[in-house]
Every structure is written in C-alpha cells, then in structure tokens.
Amino acid sequence: MTIPPSVSEEEWEVFLAETQEQIEGLETSTLRLEQDDGDPELLREMFRLAHTIKGSSAAVGLDSMARLTHAMESLLDKLRSGQMEVRPPLVDALFQGCDLLQRLVVLPTQTSGEEPPVDPLIERLLRLAEHGGETVATAQPVASRGGDSGRPAASSSAPTGGTAVAEAPTAVAVQPVADAPAPDRELGGAASASVRIDVERLDTLMELIGELVIDRARIEQIATRWAASARTNVLRTQLSDVSLHLRRTLDDLRDEVLKSRMVPVSSVLRRLPRVVRDLARASGKQVELNIDGEETELDRSVVDELADPLVHLVRNAVDHGIESPAERQAQGKPAGGTIHILARHDENQILIELKDDGRGVDVDRVREVAISRGLVTQDAANRMSESDLIDLIFVPGFSTASSVTAVSGRGVGMDIVRSRIERVNGSITVNSLSGEGTHFMIRLPLTLAIIRGLLVTLRDSPYAIPLATVAEVVRIPREQVRSVGRRPAIELRGEVLPLVWLDELLAVPSDGHERQSLIAVSVRIGGRRIGVIVDGLGGEQDVVIKPLGSFIGKARGIAGATILVDGRVCPILNIAGLLTASTASLTQSEAS
Amino acid sequence: MVAPSEDIPVVCFDLAGEMYAADVDHVREIIRLPDISPVPKAPAFIRGMINLRGKVVPVVDFRRLLGFKPEQPTKRSRILIMDFNHQLVGAIVDGVSQVTRIMTDAIEPPSNIVSRVDTAYLRGVATLGDQLAIFLDIDRVLDAAQEKAIAVLNARQERA
User: Fold this and answer.
1) Contact indicator for A203, A449 with CB cutoff of 8 Å
2) In-domain check, residue B2
3) How big is chain B by its Cα radius of gyration, in Å?
4) How many domains does chain B have?
5) How far away is chain A from the Cα of B126, in angstroms, using its nearest Cα?
6) How far is Cα A318 from Cα A397, in angstroms, rounded to an integer?
7) Nearest chain B Cα distance for residue A23, angstroms
C-alpha cells in the first residue's frame, strides 16, 4: 500500500504522528479502564479519542480504520452513557481494536503487507455494543469476511451495525478519487533554497527566546531604576543603550522565528473541498465551496489545532445546513448551496469565518432537543433569547443529527470544536438566521508560544486573560448592577451582560472591600459574553506561554502560565474553563 | 536490593519532626522559598507555581501530600527541585540537613511503626549515626501526587 495521493507527504506525517499518539492514548486509557472500572471522565476521554481517530482517518481515506473506530466508538458510547458495565470481554475487544489500529495506521507507509481483516473485530465490537459482555461466550465469531469489502458489518445487528453499512457507499465513492493524480501536491517545486526543520526544534528556539525576552525586560527595568536613582554615569548610559539594542534585536529575532513557524492556512483548508465533494455526493446535494484568504499565515501549532474543528464545521454545513436541491428551489433559492470560508488577519489574531446559505439553525428544534436531553429546563428555555438558544449547540451531549453517521453526529462534535478552540486561547461564535444560513466566526492567536494578554489583578496577584477572548473592558457603577434571573448582571447598550466575580471563580477569599466602581472584563464564551469583575487592570502585554507539565497542566481553569517582568509567575486564565464545563450548567443555574 | 552492598547518595530533610531521605539522583537542586503563585482550582497539596530561572515549576507541599499537619513555611523551609518524568517538580520540606550516603545493606524494610507515611511510598528505613532516616520512594510519591492532582482537577470540572 502507499500513502493516498490526495494527501501530501507533510499532511501524512502530521496525521501519522498525531494518530499514533491518539491510538497510544486509547490503549493506555483501556489499561486504566480495567483498573478504575467505569470512570466516567476516562470513558469520555476514550470516546473522544476514538471519535478523533475516526474523523482523521476518514479524511485521509483510511476507510478500514474509520470503520473500526466507529465500532469501538459505539461500544464506548454504551459504556460512557452507563448503559453497559465494563467487563473483561469488552476490554479485550477494545485492546484488540487498538492493536489493529496500530497495524492499520502504518500500513500505507510500508512497502509490502496486506491489510489485516478488520470486519470480524468490527462485528464483534458491534455485537458487544448491542448485547454487552455476557452473550459473547455464546456468540459464534462470524467467519472472516475480510474479502467482502462492500458490506462490512453484519446486517443482522441492529442500529449501530446499520450505520456502518450506510457509511460504506461514501467510502466506495472515495476510491476513484484517491487513485487520481493529486494536482495540489507540493513536493518537487519547493525544492529550492529551503530546509525542513523539525517543529520541536522551533519550539525549543521559541522557548529560549521567551526566556530571553523576560531577561531583557528585567535588564531594562534595572537600567530604568538605576537611571531614577543615580546621577549621570557613563556605565548607566551604556547599560541603557545596550538594553535598548538588545530589545530591538530580540524583537527582530522573535519575529523571524515566529515567521519561520508560519504556514499558510491553505495547508488545512486543502482537505476541505474533498470533504465537501464526498459528502455532497453521498447525500445528493449540490454544494459549492469558496475559499478566500488561504494564503493567510499562522503558526504551525495553531494550524494543527484548527484542522479537526474546521473539517467538522464543514461536514455539519453539508450534512445539516445545506438543503436538498428540491427543497432549496421550493424556497426560491438556487439549487446549489454555497459554503464560504474566509481567513484573514485581524490585528494580532487570525479570524476564520465559515458561512453557508443553508437552512440555518432550527431554533425550535434546538430548544426541543436541549429540553429533552435535560440540558436546560423548559422554563429556562422559554426565557432564553434566540442567540442563547443557538449557542446550546456548543454544549456537550447536544446534537440535532437525527441519524448517526460514520463521521458526524452523536453530539460530541460541536463540543469538541469549541473546547479545542478555547484550549488554544481562541473563541468561536455563531450567528444564524432561519432559512438564510449559518455563520461561524473563529478567532485564534497567531501563535501558541506568545499571545496578547490582558493583565488583571486580584488581591495584588497578577493574572492574564487571552486578548482573543476579551470583547471589551467596562467600568460599572455598583448601583447599576441588578439581578437578572437571580444572577447579577448589567445592561450594556441594551444587552444584558451577566457578571461573575473573579475571586469567586478562583475561590480566593473576599477582601471585604465594597467597591463603588467595578471593573468588568467582558469575555466571549461560546457566542455569549460574560463580565468578569477584577480588582484592577495591568494593561495589554505580549505573554510568553510556558508549558505547565502534567502535574497541573490538566487544570481547566488555566490555559498556561507566564513569567512577568518582575519575575512573578502569572497564570493565564481560561475563563470558559473556570466558569463551567459548559454553558448548560450556566443556563441551568440561571433557571434554578 | 542488590546483593553486594552499595552506597546510595541521599539528601536528608526534615518533615514534621522526622528525618527523611531521598535519592540524590532525583534532586536537581535545593532552593529557598521564592514567591509562589497560586494555581486556580488545584488540590490543596499543590502550593502553586514558581519561576525557576525562566521555567514555570509546580510546587507541592510535602507535609500536606504525606498527610501531616500543614504549617506556615519558616526560614529553614526549602524547596527540593526534583526530576519527575522529564519535568521539574518542587517539594516544600521543613529543612534540609545533610547530603550523605546510605549503605544498601543498612536499609531495613519499612514498617508502620517508624513513620506515619504509607509504607507504599517508602524504600525502607536506615540508621544514620544515631538517627533514623526514612527513605522515601520519590517516584512513587510524585506518581501518586500527580494522579491525585489530575483526579481532583477532573472532579472539580465535573462539579462545575
């Protein structure tokens, strides 16, 4: 086997490295599953891993992997939802799935070797998902169906098996495309005066520069202090000069290294036309994809984080947004739908917009689903504005997909999209008009190594809030704070801005001050805004993000940490993570 | 333990009135307490983060972690900077007394009588002069701490 020609070598390497890591993660989690049986957090994590592997392997055309992970996901879904208990046969099957995935993922890079049969295991997984661990002893392992590739899963098994079958035509349709020569293959032409550098090296360089930036700032501070305290002194003047020069050189050096890490966003957008094409064909829709600004550059690490969310949004747009030609014509729209992706720089951020002219988010349906899944109460839903209701699509466990397909559906999608983007200090918002379409806006920092941060203080301790998530800062006279649905809020230009106090979020004891004028940082969270009350403001600053390691790296409330000019460690807050795991509990607390 | 007697270099430190020892291989350096910044929503035994020459290092409180009564740090308090899974982790101890060697054949199996610390975290007990040194298994202690930290952080998300 060889690497699918539609995938560039570079993309393949990224896919392989990431997926191997994810399979390993799945395996480690399976091991842990046996030990702390049924830990819900662990199961959710495993489900997400399987979901991610499924999506990315489908995107590069590894159909068997996608089908296998789909089956594993079905089983994990049963475990995750508590419909089934963790039993040894289930764990065995998951382990075998991991083993098989490890073999499948390296297959295209090997010069020889046939694909091992996946269908027997898929069938077993689906049967387990259907009947649990008990029946496995009596169930006969079905004779290998490795040769019959068209219909993978046993049609005798119920809903989950059926979806695997439904997915097969798409996969078959992919084949001819994969054999066609890829026009956008980038190798060869780029052989001029360039070198390939391991991203890790660039990471290390960036880290070192980050340390130098901090040291430089300290030298400058020393020079300034000296200037304030001492009389004119040749040494002092020289120190100031050197410090100034060091600053310029370092700024240039940093810019150069940042530039060397920049890749055009086209490297991730390139997968999308194929995704749209395949999906449109499978669903009998006509969809045109327009992409603007694909030359816009951003940091390699951000690009990596962006790939999956974008694929998911595009899939959603085709699957649920764009209507069938007949339906569109009946509404006076052109038979073919359009998806428009626009990437551009906006100050120190990158802005990616994704618009479609489909049916838009069905607000009534969202309300109905959210209530039926227990995400909001009927009462709360009735009081929510249309845009708040639309935001519910970002809540974990929400999905309006009426059928579960191999790559979209099941309601992990938009939740993952949102948390992925927030994890890299970005934000996503959605607007939608019924019958006219949906419009997503993603804001991301240009790099993960350095972001613009707004420094705030709380009881004299500094904290940074990523600027990409900050909408504005407002000062509010205390008497304007009122209670809206039992939560403090203010009215700002006719809109209600709910308020939270940072000390409550961080569980820092109150200092007992009754401030008459409050400072609220209005933060964007999944399409809504929330005012975070802080003690003071410290201005905007380039913040060098330091890795936190595994000890505290899982803290959802912090996106990282940085070191300030005075040497203090400053946590970079992830307000969304601090607030709640979801907007659901936010809206629920409003209702209760 | 290996049959022929070897000597292991150790760092000895005080914790709640007892002497503990840690393999020198684990300890990168010993520093005085700098400013410690809090980690939002972290378990209590994580005291915060420090700036160690430009690196952000998490700091745990060994008293809390090992189940002793927490105390305010004193002038004698130190942070042991330790290597753990290719990252640095700091641990606050009451004081550092000496760097010495323990003969492997002088190490007795751990028991509940000598220390209140869970024997799973101990490599044994050794006599050093006229004192007993409780030989900690740093990897196990930090492993358990990490797991606990992740569990608590996850639980806090759940409740949120």
Assistant:
1) yes
2) no
3) 16
4) 1
5) 30
6) 21
7) 21
Determine whether the interchain pair A573/B157 forms a contact, defined as Cβ–Cβ distance below 8 Å: no
Interface of A with B in 505-564 (CB under 8 A): 505-508, 546-552, 554-558, 561-563
Q: Is residue B152 part of a domain?
A: yes
> Is this complex scored with an ipTM above 0.90?
no
Mutation for testing the B interface, residue in A39, A506, A551, A563 having most B CBs under 10 Å: A551
Residues from chain B that touch A572, judged by Cβ atoms under 8 A, are: none
Is the Cβ pair A561, B85 closer than 8 Å? no
Residue contact A568–B35, C-beta within 8 A: yes
Per-residue pLDDT of chain A (592 residues; tens, 9 = 90+): 577 777 777 788 888 888 888 898 888 788 777 767 678 888 888 888 998 899 888 888 888 899 999 999 988 888 888 888 888 788 888 888 988 898 888 888 776 677 888 888 998 888 888 876 544 443 334 443 444 444 443 333 333 333 333 333 333 333 333 333 444 444 444 445 777 778 788 878 877 887 787 777 778 778 877 777 766 677 888 888 888 888 888 888 887 888 888 888 888 888 788 788 888 888 889 999 999 988 888 888 788 788 888 888 998 899 888 999 999 999 999 999 999 999 988 766 788 999 999 988 888 888 888 888 888 888 888 888 888 888 888 877 776 544 444 444 444 578 778 888 887 778 888 888 888 899 999 988 777 667 788 999 998 889 999 888 898 999 988 888 888 777 888 888 888 888 988 888 887 777 777 778 889 999 988 667 889 999 999 888 778 777 777 777 666 677 788 888 777 899 988 887 787 533 334 443 443 3
Structural domain that includes position B14: 7-159
- The answer to the question of residue B124 being in a domain is yes
Is B1 part of a structural domain of the chain?
A: no
Q: For residue B106, what is the domain's CATH number?
A: 2.40.50.180
Q: What is the DSSP letter of A400?
A: -
> What one-character-per-residue DSSP string does A242-277 give?
HHHHHHHHHHHHHHHHHHHTEEETHHHHTTHHHHHH
Q: Judge whether B90 and B37 are in contact, CB under 8 Å.
A: no
Residues of B in contact with A551 (CB under 8 A): 46, 58, 60, 84, 87, 89, 145-146, 149
Residue with tokens 């560039």: A8
pTM: 0.55
- How is residue A206 written in tokens? 């960036």
